[in-house]
C-alpha cells in the first residue's frame, strides 16, 4: 500500500514533528511559516493543507519539534557524520546524502550552513527546516527513511551533542542589523502580524508587472514593516505564490537584500503610520 503525502504528513505530525506544507518539488514553504516555530500546528490544519493533491513536507527543526538535523550532502559527508556523531535510528535519504535526526539538547542550537566545509555538512537547529520523507526533490528523487531505519518520536532519538561539530561564532545563524524602533502604536508591537495581514490582503501580479511589484513588496516588508530578512522573505514568498506565474525562489531571495541596501523608505514607516508626514518608500502610495 502506498502512502500519500497527506498520510505521511499526519504520521509525522502524530509522532511529534512540526510539519508544514511545501510545493511539490520545492524546498521552501510558500506559506508564512515562521510563526509555527513556537505554535504547534493543529492536526486539522495539517489535514486541510494536504487534502488535495501531492505536496512536499517540510519539518521545522528546533524546540518546537524537539529536533536537530545534521545534513550530509555527499557520501563523504555522510561518512564523516557517522564517524563523529552518535548513531541514530532515524535517517532520511536525500538526493545526494542523508539527514540524521537527533533530539534537541535544550538551549540554543544554531541553524548553520556549512558548519563544516570539507566535506560539506549543514546543521538544522533553531529556526531551520528540512524537507521530510515522502517529498520530491526538483530532480525527481523521493526523500525516504533509510531501509535500516524507522520513523521515531523525537523524544526517542539520541540527544545531539554540540561537541560533535565545530560551532564557532562565524557558524552561528546570521543576524541582520536593523533599526530598533519604538512607536506607541498597536501595530508596532507585532510587526510580523501587521505585515502578514498586509500580504494576505495584497493580490498577486501577472507576468508583465510581477518583477516590479515583487520589489515593491520587498521594500514594504524590509523597510516599511522593519522585518528581519528571514521573516520578510517568508512573507514575500507567500505573496509571490499568488502571482501568475510565480517567480522562482532564486529570483525572489535577492530582492530582500536589494530592498534593504537600495530602498529609499524609512524603516518602520508603515508601523508608525506616519506617511502623512512625508515618509517615503519605493513604490508606496
Broad shape:
globular
Our estimate of the beta-strand percent is 5-15%
Reading the helices and strands in chain order gives HEHEEHEEEEEEHHHHH
- Strand segment tally: 9
Distance between the termini: 55 Å
Strand order of the largest sheet: 6-7-3-5-4-9
What's the overall average pLDDT, rounded? 85
- The proportion of residues forming helix, as a percent range, comes to 25-40%
Largest sheet features: 6 strands, antiparallel
Number of helices: 8
Radius of gyration: 20 Å
Low-pLDDT sequence parts: 170-176, 183-189, 274-285
Report the structural category.
alpha+beta
Gist of the model:
Helix content is 29%, strand content 14%.
Describe this structure in words.
With 285 residues, this protein is of the alpha+beta class. It has helices at residues 5-14, 43-49, 75-84, 191-201, 210-224, 229-240, 249-262, 269-272; strands at residues 18-22, 56-60, 67-72, 91-93, 98-103, 112-116, 121-124, 129-131, 144-145. The strands form two sheets. It has a six-stranded antiparallel beta sheet. It has a three-stranded antiparallel beta sheet with strand order 1-2-8, with helices on one face. β6 (112-116) and β7 (121-124) form a beta hairpin. The chain is globular, with a radius of gyration of 20 Å. Mean pLDDT is 85; it is low at 170-176, 183-189 and 274-285.
